[in-house]
Amino acid sequence: LCAVRYTGVAGAAFRQEQHRRTLPPGQEDTVTMTVTYSEYQPHVGDQDALKLTVAGAVQETGQVLAKELLVRLHTPELTLTLLGPAVVGQEVPIQVVFQNPLPKALTGATLRMEGAGISCPKPVSL
């Protein structure tokens, strides 16, 4: 498991596991891997993804199988709600909701709204 930058460049692997299985004919097996935020957080940036590479070898034949999975990390959305009627030339109150999905507090955040008719957007510290 490694982080992949938005440019496609992969970082060093930060987690590796090895499993051996014996499978009877026609059977399948599942290996589950849980990756916590605290484990991958030091390795990823704002627009990064996680790349999981799995390789398997059949001991009897020497055949090698491989598969990659790219997992995009989604940023949470802002929810915007008008709290009154939008009338040209008048202020309109807007509610902005952001839910922090991380297991730690976010600090130093600012909110800046831009759009048609907003002549001088002022950042709001949160």
Question: How would you describe what is shown here?
Answer:
It is a single chain. Helices cover about 5% and strands about 25% of the residues. It starts with a strand and ends with a strand. A hairpin with a 6-residue loop joins strand 2 and strand 3. The protein contains one helix and seven strands; from the N terminus they run E-H-E-E-E-E-E-E. It is elongated. It has a domain at about 1-70. The chain has one helix spanning about 35-40; strands at about 1-5, 50-55, 65-70, 80, 95, 110, 125. The strands form three sheets. The protein has a three-stranded antiparallel beta sheet with strand order 1-2-3, with no helix packed on it. The protein has about 130 residues and is mainly β.
Number of strands: 7
- Radius of gyration equals 23 Å
Order of helices and strands: EHEEEEEE
Sequence of strands across the biggest β-sheet: 1-2-3
Report the principal-axis shape.
elongated
What is the averaged pLDDT score?
89
Fraction of helical residues: under 10%
| Oligomer status | single chain
Low-pLDDT parts are none
Query: How can the largest sheet be summarized?
Result: 3 strands, antiparallel
Assign the structural class, choosing from mainly alpha, mainly beta, alpha/beta, alpha+beta, or little secondary structure: mainly beta
What fraction of the residues are assigned to beta strands by DSSP? 25-35%
| Tally of DSSP helical segments | 1
EC number: 2.3.2.13
Keywords: Acyltransferase, Transferase
Protein name: protein-glutamine gamma-glutamyltransferase
GO molecular function: protein-glutamine gamma-glutamyltransferase activity
